[in-house]
Structure formats: structure tokens, C-alpha cells
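User: Quick one: structure for sequence A, then sequence B.

Assistant: Sequence A:
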Amino acid sequence: MDELVRLIRSLSKSEKRYFKMFSALQGGDKDYLKLFDVVEKLEEYDEEKIKKALKNEDFLNRLPAVKNYLYGQVLKSLRMNYIGSTVDSELKEMIEEITILYEKRLFRQCVKLLDKAKALAKANEQILQLIELNLLEQKVQIETLNIDKFERTLGSSLEQEIELLEKQRNTAEYRNLYNRIVVINKKIKEARTEEELKQFEEIIAHPLLRSFDQAKSFDSKNYFYLIHLNYNHAKGDNEACLEIAQEQLKLLESFPQKIAEKPKMYIAALNNVLLSQIHLHSYADFGETLEKLRNIKLRSVNIEANRFVSSYMFEMVMHLDTGNFSKSVETRERILEGLKKYHDKINVIEEITLLYNIFYSYFGTGEYSKALGIINRLLNEYQKELRYDIQSAVRILNLILHYELGNARLLEYNAISAYRFLYKSKRLYKLENIVLNFIRKKMHHIYTPKDEVEAFIELRKEFIPLLDDPYEKKAFEYFDYISWFDSRIEKRSFEEIVKEKFEKNKKSR
């Protein structure tokens, strides 16, 4: 999509209104507003449609220049619109004003504004701005204090600056550790071998990650929680994940101003709690957490899209986990509507996750053809974006769907294709091997319903030990293989089996 179209389509109604007001106050030629009105209606940038709509306008022969000017004006209006809307932007504005007052030698006014700015920066732990304000304060003091008084301030001023720089260094170190574990997480996410887990352990062994007390700023503390969250998620410690996620949420809620300014950070923290509750199959507080997520006041369509993704993804997963596939239908429809509404504001990974959940919903309601359509879409349209662990699961699920649909020839062909991919990518673990061996060696001997039951009983026995294997059990988070086997063995619906299993496990927890 063209950059101008993408920028204009990202604007909310209030931002578009502000742009028109902002433009009305500007002098000079307003041809760019005519271009704005045309581009606003476009799904994709189409030069021919624009030329046709503006065929009577004199500026058409300099369209590229007007287009660039419009892009700049939209950005400028956004910048003006958001001045003072966050502590960060408010402090930047105050620092500019202090600098202007200093240049005009209005030092008394400088001091008043400096005190106000420092109080605001301290309350919100804005370290970089505090460093800048500290330097400005020294410049003002050398102009306003006599030499003896100024000399007495030097020691405390130096201590303050060193303390701030140490905090900033501390934050930078934690940020670096966080970025390093994120890189590993994007490649692996969940360790299925000791070698994969070792990559996470090398990060977590860092001295700064041994104690929360070593984190000296809000950002450092937040990174501390996120790093440990990534690590514990990778090794499958869901109880630790929930505890850490709840502590991180408490940290954010103790800084309400940061929630107002950075709702995306708060959404991510709520997501971590919801994800941990799902992994533990614990839904006592799930509704309350989901309500918090849906009640956040948002000013951005992009963040609204982000909230839509997480909100409905987690609601869907809850239905799937508890076996309420019938209830998932309504959520499924809302997701499909949201995918259309926010199609240009949802990233590929989010779209893959939502589509995967839609597949599961279709599977649970027995709509196998529709489920296969989603799986084929994931394999054909998103293959490059699929992580290896998800692609492994999708290829196995593709085989299961062909089995349900009775596509014997396609099943064999896809089994060969899956084997080649998994072997080449070194993701051919025990679970995948068992499934592929079943298709290649045992499926041909199924002639009667009784043969099928016996075959699935044997297959189930082979799967059971994998539930206790730390590197194999993670695959069961993508699909409930055991319940599917039971549905084939007992000739009952998948929904009925999953729901019954959830209630039984709930009582034993």
C-alpha cells in the first residue's frame, strides 16, 4: 500500500477533523486538501483514479510534489494534535520553553518552569528528560546564583547527574537483555529440546536477572518481569508465568499515567495474565481481566485493532479450551468481521493466530471443509511467516482434516509432503513421527469401524507418554490430540469429549 494512503487511512475521525482545522489556519495554496479528500476514499493508491477525480485541477501536472507536501502536512498536524497529550511530549514542550526563556534571560521564569518540569519528570520516572533538565538547571544557576552558592550546588548536582546516568545505564542493560531474549523467542518461542532451552538459560543467568532489586527504574523493572516471563514461558512453567504477569500488572497499575500514555503496554500486560490463565486452564478471574482489557479508553484506531485481536483471541481460546465450541461460533463471527474492519492494521502474526483459532472453532463444530480451507490458507498464503512449531502443528492438522473428510489419496500425498518438510527443518519429533507412521503403515489396514477403533486405541497409547515429556507436551497446546482420539474411539463428538474432559480436570485441580 502507498505510504500516503496508509498514513491517511490510519487517521481517526478526530485526527481527520483536526487536520482540516489545522489546514484552515495555514496560509498559501490549499490544493493538497483536494488531494486529501480523494485519497481518503481510496483502498489502495491508484494514480489513474486520482487523475480522473482531479482532471480539472491545475496542480495535476505537479502531483508528486503536492502528494509529498500533503504527507508532510498530515504528519505536522498529528504532531501538533498530540502536543502535551503525553508526559513525554509535555516535558519536551516545557524544555523548549525553558530554553527560550533562558535565551531571553528571563531566569526567574526559567526557575519556576524548571521546578514544575522536574517534579513532573520525577513523578513519571522520565530519566532522559531529568538529565536534560539537570543540565538546564545548572546553566540557569550559574546566571542567577552568586559564586559561593553556585559552588555549593556542584556536589549535589554531580551526584544527581551520576545517579540519573546510572539509572539510564541500568535501563539500557535490561533493555538489551530483553531484546536478546525476544530474538530467541521469535525463533523458538517454546523450547522442545535442551539445546533450545539452553539459549534462554544463557540470558537468564545474567547477574542483573537474579534479583528484582537490581532494577533501578520503572522501565528496568518492567523489562525484568518481561524477560522472566519469556523464559518461564519457553520452559513451560505456567504457574510462574501467571505470578510474574500479575506482578507486572501491579507495577503498571501503580503508574496510572503510564497506562493512559502507553495503553499498548497495559494491553500487553493484561494479555500476559490472560495467556497464563489459559495455560493453567484457570478461568475464575478470566472475565474480570478481559473486562479490564475491553474497558481501556483508547484514542488510536491502531491500538483499538490491537485490543480487538487480543480480546477476541483470548475469548475464543477460552471457549475452545473449555469445549464450548457452540459458544465459539458467535466469537468466530466477530473475529471474521474484525479481520475485515482492521485488515490493514493487523500484523501477519496476529492474523495467523486469529485464523488458527477460527480453524479450531470450525473443527470443534464439525465443519471440516471450512476448517481445511483455513489450514490451506495458512499453508499457502502464510508459509513464510509461520514459525516452525506452528507450521509443524498445521501440517499434522492438515492430515487429521483429510482423514475426517475421507480424502485417502490427499492424505497420503500430504503425509509425504509433511515428512519432507519436518525432516528438512529438523522438527520431526516423536509426536510427528507417530502420526506419520500411523498414516503410512497402519491406515491401510483399517477396513471396518472395529479396525478403526483398535487403531486409534493403539495410537492413543503411543501419545500418552508424550504428555509427560517436557519437549513434546508443548505440541498438545496447539491441538487436543487425545480428545480427538477419544472421539473416534467412543464415536462421540469432539465438543462433547473436550467439555467433559475440562469439567473432570477442573474438579481434580
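Sequence B:
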Amino acid sequence: MIAMVEAGRDLLRAAIRRRDPLSADRLLTMSEDLARSPPGFAPALAEQILSGYEAAPETERRAFLSGLAVRLAPDPVRLERAVAGFGRRPDPAALAELHAASEPRRQQLFRNLNLARDGTTRLVRLRTDLGRWRREIDDADTLDADLAHLLSSWFNAGFLRLERIDWSSPASLLRKIIAYEAVHEIGDWDELRRRLEPQDRRCYAFFHSGMPDEPLIFVEVALTTGTPRSIESLLSPVRRVCPPGQAQTAVFYSISNCQDGLRGIPFGSSLIKQVVELLRAELPSLRTFVTLSPMPGLRAWVESRADDPVLGAAARAVLDVDPPPADQLRRLAATYLLTAKSGAGQVLDPVGRFHLGNGACVHDIHPGADPSAKAQRQSFGAMVNYLYDLGALERNRARLDRDGAVAGARRVRAFARRGAL
């Protein structure tokens, strides 16, 4: 039976290749049919739609995504009837009908598309397209919200598998680690080996059964005797290897999201917490869990403060001198991390938003910690330690959510106070 299904799929893909690619309008009509299809009929039609979409020219794919927001919105007639019915008799049955009527038909379409071969992977790629063409697609935010809603359920941390990646892992996976590394570029295989093989190095990744060969997010960890002040101390080819039994600190020095189509899906915090628990069980000597993190928004924020009546002098001093004065840079960075917020009231720095949202604390700031050109452009080469104090995570996160208060060590708060003078 399985062989017959696979043969049918092969014939379908061959048929699509032989004729002209399906138009956006044809794909949308088929999608409307799929959204109404009983589950038993869904896989073949789902395969035809996804194969047709993937074979279509870019203009047709963009038109298809734009059309989904309009043609597979909630049925207005059904929704109006459900609202009226609930108004007349607000019982559980009426509420269930109102909920069903208000759900966009796109969500049922995506559920059925997921039944195609490698459906989950292909839907993640479709969301990658959506993000790339967001400005050219009508009502892209609504369509993205529907996909994100479903993917958040499918990629719940309870469905993910944590695996350690080491030098003995398959070469195909190791190539992906090199390709997906987003914080500190891995130049070649020798450099990758230095990050995976030594006994004081660890790398862990989340995987999902729907994408078994693709890491979703991975974290690189260094085992050390103390809190690092520079990335060179962790990545130098001539560094001293720390025997794991002597390590007191686990340093999360690189966290990389691998799938653009899963941006905003919140499984990163679960990765950190699971790795912490795993390391604590393996190495009871570990006492401290910190990051060594970039501050990608620092330079832009400092530039925006050049004419500020309070911070302007410090900002100009940092902008006008290379390398910038360490004391001024440390003070500005502390003020930035503790106080800078977006228009929506969130922590402005994207890396800080992630770690502080997990309940971490701004522990220390290190000017000149990363000499790379990228770090110079983003943060004048400064880096920050976020401390994961397991006993304070929930309290820190609650204060951030409730009051917008960022947890910071006493010395970091002292830096910020001096910077505001």
C-alpha cells in the first residue's frame, strides 16, 4: 500500500513537470477544495498543491500567498449566523460554532497540507518565503499569524528531541552546524572540531519528528573555571582545555536559530533550561551558568543618543575614538541593556530580549571582548554576560513582564547610574 502511494506521488510530480506550472488562481481553487476535504482525501491534493507551488515562478508564488489571505478568510455568512446564534442562546454549542466560524479556513488548509510528504518541512519553507516577500504580499501579517499559530502548537517543546552533537555526529549534520552558525562564524572543519571534540566543549540541538534531519536551534557550550571576559578566551586554538571535573561554569557562547520559517516560535528558552538540567546531572561541580553574548543593537542606540542632553557627551566620546573609552562604553552599554525599550515596551536589544525574557540577569559587561568586524559594527566589540540563576529566573521574568524591570547585577546598575550623571 505504501509503495502504491509513493508511486502515485511520483506520477503526480512527473505530471506537474510535464505541463505548464500551475497558476496562482488554480492553486487557490485547489486550496479551497483542500480546506473542505475530508481527511482521507487530503494527502494527494495536498501533495499536488505543494508541488505546484514549489514549481511555480516566484510571481505566481507571491500571488498565491496574497490570495490565501483573501480567499480563505473566515466565511462571513457563517460567521454572521454564528454571532447571531450565540446572541440568541449563548450555550456551549453556540460558542463552539462561533469559534469554528471565526477560524480562518487557511488554518484547516495548513493542517491538511501538513499531510503531504514532508509536509511540515515544506510549510516551514513556505513561511520562509512569506517572510522574504512580506512587503509584496497583501495582508502578510494575518497570514503569518495563522501559520505561526499552528507551528507554535506543532513545535511545542514537548514534541522536540534534545540531542548532543559532537565530532562523531554524521558529516551531513556537521555541515549544517557550520552553515547555520549565526553568532561566531565557523571558518573550516578544523575550527568546528575545536568546538565539538575537546572534553570541555558541548553542543546541543533540538530536533522535531516532522523535520528529523534538520536542527531547529542549537547552543554551543564551553566548560570553564570562571566567567569569561572575551570570546577569544573561549575560541583560541591554543587555549588550555579545562578538565570537566574541574569546571565550575558553563558558558553558553553561541545560540543559533536554524530555520527562518520558525522565527518567533518560542522553543529557545526550553533549550537553555533543558541543557542546564542535563549539565547539572552530568557535572555536579558546575555552579554558574552564564552566556557570553553580543549586543547587536548597541551602536545604533548610542548613535541615536549623540544629542541627548544626559547621555550625549558619553555617546560622542564613544563614537569619536577608536577604540572607545572602556569606562564610557561600559556605562552606555549598561544603560542600554537596563533601560532601552522598543515602542511596544519590550527590551530593545534582540539578544537581551531573549535572555531577559527567560529570567536571566545582566551580570557583567566587557568592552573589547570581540574583535571581529561584525562585533565592531554592532557593539564596538563589547559583549555581555547574562546569568542564569536558577533560583531567580521566575522572579526576574515576572518583574519584567509586570513592571518592565530588567534584572541587573549591582555593578551593572552602578555602571548605568554613573553613565546617567
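The mean pLDDT is 91. The radius of gyration is 25 Å.

User: Thanks, that's what I needed.
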